[in-house]
Write a structure and sequence with these properties.
Blueprint lengths: L3 E4 L10 H7 L6 E2 L12 H16 L5 E6 L1 H12 L6 E7 L18 H4 L6 H8 L8 E6 L18 E4 L12 H14 L8
Parallel strand pairs: 1-2, 1-3, 3-4, 4-5, 5-6
Helix pairs in contact: 1-6, 2-3
């Protein structure tokens, strides 16, 4: 069964995914849920993506195909890994949940010299511009975006989507409910279960 990598966001830890894993109910599926210390937004996202790469290499080696889900900032970290660190070549599915793939108004007042990682999520940041220009690296992946319309962390919520793939609005009211409310967890878990049956691209 294809492994699943779960990437947490700002102010979160791997414990964020406890309820999702329960809803997933696939005890035989290999999971990697690394802790990426972000210093409350101090650590640049590219640095965190490099940490993610090391965790994946250490756990699964260089060739095993994986599925990847990133929540909030974790979705941007995962996208950096896919596009800039070669992750797309070994990934079948990419799930972006409440991630500021197009930036968020919430990050606009954040000074980069103090909180580089959080500032990476500003609309129009150099990082997001680079990811946008290199988004062709995701063309061969099955990409899915999930968002909450009333999200105040990724604002406006409907921009929390990738430039390709399916997009689904989830019937919850807050950012954290995307990983904490059954109305969001059930459809995400269902898609994750179905995705593992998808045929992987040749390695």
């Amino acid at each position: 069964m294809r492994p699943l990598v779960l990437v947490h966001g700002l102010w979160d830890t791997p414990r964020l995914f406890v309820r999702l894993v329960q809803h997933l109910d696939q005890p035989e599926r290999p999971l990697l849920i690394p802790h990426l210390p972000h210093g409350l937004g101090v650590v640049p996202l590219r640095q965190l993506a490099s940490q993610l790469d090391r965790h994946i290499q250490d756990r699964f080696g260089a060739d095993v195909m994986v599925d990847l889900l990133g929540f909030s900032m974790g979705g941007v970290i995962g996208r950096i890994w896919l596009q800039e660190l070669g992750g797309a070549a070994r990934t079948s599915q990419f799930f972006s949940v409440g991630s500021p793939q197009q930036g968020t108004l919430t990050a606009l007042p954040i000074p980069r010299r103090l909180l580089a990682g959080a500032a990476d999520m500003k609309m129009g940041s150099s990082l997001l511009q680079d990811l946008r220009s290199g988004s062709g690296a995701l063309d061969d992946l099955n990409c899915r975006s999930y968002f909450c319309r009333w999200d105040l962390m990724v604002c406006p919520g409907w921009r929390a989507v990738l430039p390709m793939g399916s997009r689904r609005e989830l019937p919850v009211w807050t950012h954290q409910q995307l990983m904490g409310h059954s109305a969001a967890l059930e459809p995400i878990a269902r898609d994750l279960r179905e995705s593992v049956q998808a045929v992987s691209r040749p390695e």
